Structures are given as C-alpha cells and as structure tokens.
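Below is how a single chain appears once it has passed through the pipeline. First comes the sequence as given, then the structure the pipeline wrote out for it. We keep one example in the README because the format questions we get most often are answered faster by looking than by reading.
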Amino acid sequence: QVQLVESGGGLVQAGGSLRLSCAASASTFSSYTMGWFRQAPGKERTFIASISRSWNSATTAYADSMKGRFGISKDITKNTIYLQMNNLKPEDTAVYYCASSSTLRPEEWEAAARRKTPLDYWGQGTQVTVFA
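Resulting structure:
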C-alpha cells in the first residue's frame, strides 16, 4: 500500500518560512511523479508544484501563482520531497497535501488539476497557519 506522509506544518508569523516534507516508500518515489496541493477553508484544493520521478533529473513545474515564494525539491536518499515556503502570508493558511501520479509528467499536473483528474495517492495533509 502506498503511503505518503506529510510533516512540517505549523504556526508561523507572516514573512516567515516553513519547509514541508512528504515521505514515501522507495518504490513509490521511483515510480511516481509527486507534487503539492493546498486547500484553504471553504476553497477548492489547488495545485502548487510537482517534481519528476527519482530516477529523472529534478524536473519541476509550478502553478504560476506559486512561482517565486515556493520551491519543490527532493532527496532521493530519503525518498522525500519538500516544499520550501518563504515570505509566507496569511492567505497561505491552508492544509497542504502531497500526492503522487504514475502517469502524469510534472508539467501536466496543473492542467490535470484543473480538469480534476484523479491522482493515484494522497497524503493526510499538514496544516499551515500564517498569522499577521
């Protein structure tokens, strides 16, 4: 069974930074592209960024609105992807989820998210709260 386990969420003051982690099994990490979404209260889940399978070079893709302050990366020795979030704002408050896809390339994630294409697996989410 595939498991994605997020961590690193918490309470942070506006302007601060957080790094979220999403750990997966080695087989998941090598077989799936992975990415991050977030869902704010009362809003739909939105795509943030995605990254290639572990055996590829680190091809990444971002939602246009997320470029600049957010960075996705991976550590293949730990089977983990990360989301570095800088200069956080109260509107970044949301539950952040990682997900995986066996079929999508990183650059296909955003369009797939708009079409609400199902992804293969999701983590349980980690809460990020940014206060002013």
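The chain has two helices and eleven strands.

See the next section for the split statistics.
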